[in-house]
Design goal:
The protein is of the alpha+beta class. The chain is about 55% helix and about 10% strand. The protein is built from 30 helices and ten strands. The chain has a five-stranded antiparallel β-sheet, with no helix packed on it. It has a three-stranded antiparallel β-sheet with strand order 6-9-10, with no helix packed on it. A hairpin with a 2-residue loop joins strand 3 and strand 4. Helix 22 runs antiparallel to helix 23 and helix 25 crosses helix 26. Keywords: Cytoplasmic vesicle, Golgi apparatus, Membrane, Protein transport, Transport.
Length: about 700
């Protein structure tokens, strides 16, 4: 039994219902056989239906070349239904490489000469798709005539066809230039129809309400793209509003508020949002909008946004607009200045870091509070990446801390202390700059913390009075101590700040002591407002009144920080309290001798441990870690970290430096205080990180051979 031919819809359903590719091929082969038979029979009534099915098969990737001649027959047919399918088949099945496409030249010429616009449109689309150079030469005159047709439908297709012809045959441009010049004189669409404009201006309020609903209702799964609600409809409404509001004050006034809402509420992080914002700006600029909307502010915002997106792909091109971007930092509009700040930070590089940082620091002094954190952090990051010298880097951070210290990142203090510590030639310069800044203002907590740390580390350089890079500054010990005391007593000081100040005082106790017992840097006025009164036996070099004052400072720090946990209490003994607090050489019985231990050696770097157990506190073990470098290159960024069993408690004090000089120079020492109340066997786990001989080194090892005298 002969299976009847399927309709196009039935064929599509059967192909889609095929469960395997073999089933699909079987269905298509059977239907292609019916289509061939129909073409052979020459059935004119159903030829366009058979060709439509063949075109669908061709779209699926199966061969359909046997339908090329049927396309020519349908194009020559007087019926529009045949021409429509025939021209579609010609565009899909024919191309310039096949001679058959030349056979439709006469049919296209006849159809272009007819006055039926739909048929002319089909012929023009086919010509602009498969037209070869020979066809373009033959049909150029017909297309030229259609360029000046009154109807826009045929005229637009004729323009596109003319473009295709010029690309194929550049010599034809002389034919199309005169009509193109006349096309430019045509008024924009809508402008030539005042009656239509008058009619549609009545519905401006309805258009405004529709657009407001799209903007304010938010996300809709049916019509949203990238989080923007129906951007295509928004763009079309904005274009219509632009035409209706041009040179019409009433319509422009109706849409003013809406345009402001669209401009401020549209998400520009996606392309869909940028398209809506772009049309909004065009509408604002082309209508009689309010001064706040039509001002250059919105145009500048869009320009800055575009430059910010371009800066990653073409940095040098955006650099040319740097002066204009910097000027936008001073704009009163907050959104504009924020976008200008983001772009300014993105434009900073090694060649302009000095100039750009100066502009950004000037902006930081007067910028709105909500921009200070971003501006300060951006300057610090730029300085860290592109600093030309260490001194410039230090000066830049100090200026930021002085101007907006409370808005910087949490790691700013640690970064600056590390930077200063690694620049030995700038120690005197840094401590003088920080001391002067601290004397002027103690409200900026990060600045106070860095200054206290620097004074504690390099206070002796501050008192020497010799630094060629700064103005002469004569500072007395009493002034330094009074300033640190002021920090401790200030209600603005955070607990961490008081900790920095107190640590600085303890460091100065060893670095600023005089030549005799009558002179001590910690002697303070008797009217100091401290509460506690301790009376331990004085150290061998420090008089009694000062010890009481220093312990009062500890009490003051503890009372202001409720969250801080004190170290485990040691057994008190006469004359031992201050020595334990400061690790000072107070008069006490000689401790038992414990042999030293070398625990690490690599490429000239040696790590030795020396041990002391104070007799008055048997549970306490003091370990001095000494790093010595006998190689020919310095060991830099040296960090030693330690861990002990859970039954013990460890206090790891700051090292004497982070650079171990070459050739057996001054070693780096660090003190470990281990409290072992249960006298459990002691083990140490050490981690060393440093830079040596151009390499970054990290070593983790365990010390299990500690002498028994250290814990028994």
């Amino acid at each position: 039994m002969v299976v009847p031919s399927l309709k196009l819809q039935d064929l599509i359903e059967e192909i889609r219902g095929a469960k395997t590719q073999a089933q699909e091929r079987e269905v298509i082969q059977k239907e292609c056989a019916h289509i061939r038979a129909s073409f052979r029979d020459g059935d004119p009534l159903h030829r366009h239906r058979q060709l439509a099915k063949l075109l669908y098969v061709h779209m699926l990737g199966y061969p359909a070349h046997f339908g090329q001649m049927e396309c020519l027959k349908l194009i020559a047919s007087p019926r529009f239904t045949d021409k429509r399918v025939g021209y579609l088949g010609a565009m899909l099945l024919l191309d310039e490489r096949q001679d058959a496409h030349l056979l439709i030249t006469n049919s296209i010429k006849n159809d272009l000469s007819q006055g039926i616009q739909a048929v002319q449109g089909l012929a023009l689309c086919t010509l602009s798709t498969v037209g070869s150079a020979e066809m373009c030469w033959d049909l150029a005159t017909e297309v030229e005539k259609l360029l000046l047709q009154p109807g826009s439908y045929v005229r637009k297709k004729a323009v596109l066809t003319a473009v295709h012809m010029i690309r194929k045959v550049p010599e034809l441009s002389n034919i199309f230039l005169p009509p193109c010049a006349q096309l430019q004189e045509h008024q924009p669409r809508g402008e030539g129809y005042p009656a239509a404009l008058k009619h549609f201006r009545k519905v401006v309020p309805q258009l405004v309400q529709i657009l407001r609903t799209l903007v304010m209702t938010g996300y809709s799964t049916e019509h949203s793209i990238s989080g923007v609600s129906d951007p295509f409809l928004q763009v079309q409404i904005l274009r219509l509003l632009r035409i209706l509001g041009r040179n019409h004050e009433e319509s422009s006034e109706t849409m003013n508020d809406l345009l402001a809402q669209v401009a401020t509420n549209t998400d520009t992080s996606r392309n869909a949002g940028n398209a809506v914002l772009f049309e909004t700006v065009l509408t604002i600029m082309d209508t009689r909008s309010a001064a706040g909307l039509s001002s250059p502010t919105l145009a500048r915002y869009v320009a800055l946004t575009s430059l910010l997106r371009m800066v990653q792909s073409d940095h040098s091109a955006v650099q040319r607009h740097r002066p204009t971007v910097v000027e936008c930092l001073r704009e009163p509009d907050a959104s504009l200045s924020r976008r200008a700040l983001e772009l300014s930070l993105a434009l900073v590089n090694s060649s302009n870091v000095r100039a750009m940082t100066q502009e950004l620091q000037s902006f930081l002094e007067s910028c709105p509070p909500d921009l200070r954190a971003d501006c300060a952090s951006g300057i610090l990051l730029a300085a860290e990446r592109f600093a030309p010298t260490k001194r410039w880097h230090i000066d830049t951070i100090l200026r930021v801390l002085t101007t907006a210290g409370t808005h910087v990142r949490d790691d700013a203090v640690a970064n600056l202390t590390q930077l200063i510590g690694g620049a030995q030639e700038l120690h005197a310069y840094s401590v003088r700059r920080l001391y002067s800044a601290l004397a002027e203002d103690i409200s900026q907590q990060p600045l106070v913390q860095v200054a206290a740390w620097c004074i504690g580390e390099y206070g002796d350089l501050l008192l020497e009075g010799s630094c060629e890079e700064t103005e002469p500054l004569q500072v007395k010990e009493e002034e330094v101590l009074a300033l640190l005391e002021k920090v401790l007593q200030s209600h603005m000081s955070l607990p961490a700040t008081r900790g920095y100040a107190l640590t600085a005082l303890m460091k100065l106790s060893t670095r600023l002591r005089g030549d005799n017992n009558d002179r001590c840097p910690f002697t303070m006025p008797s009217s100091s407002e401290f509460l506690s009164a301790h009376t331990p036996r004085p150290c061998s070099f420090c008089p009694l009144p000062q010890a009481s004052k220093l312990l009062d400072l500890l009490d003051l720090l503890d009372s202001s920080s409720g969250a801080a946990q004190p170290p485990p209490p040691l057994e008190p003994s006469p004359g031992g309290t201050l020595g334990h607090l400061l690790d000072l050489p107070c008069a006490s019985p000689a401790p038992a001798s414990v042999p030293n231990l070398r625990v690490f050696e690599r490429e000239g770097l040696q790590l030795n441990l020396s041990f002391v157990r104070p007799p008055e506190t048997p549970a306490l073990l003091l370990i001095t870690v000494t790093a010595v470098n006998t190689s020919g290159a310095d060991v830099t960024h040296f960090v030693c970290q330690a861990a002990v069993p859970k039954s013990c408690q460890l206090q790891l004090q700051a090292p004497s430096g982070d650079t171990v000089p070459a050739q057996g120079g001054l070693p780096v020492t660090q003190l470990l205080r281990i409290f072992n109340p249960n006298k459990a066997p002691l083990r140490l786990k050490l981690r060393l990180t440093y830079h040596h001989l151009g390499q970054s080194v990290q070593e983790i090892f365990e010390v299990n051979n500690l002498p028994a005298e250290t814990w028994q």
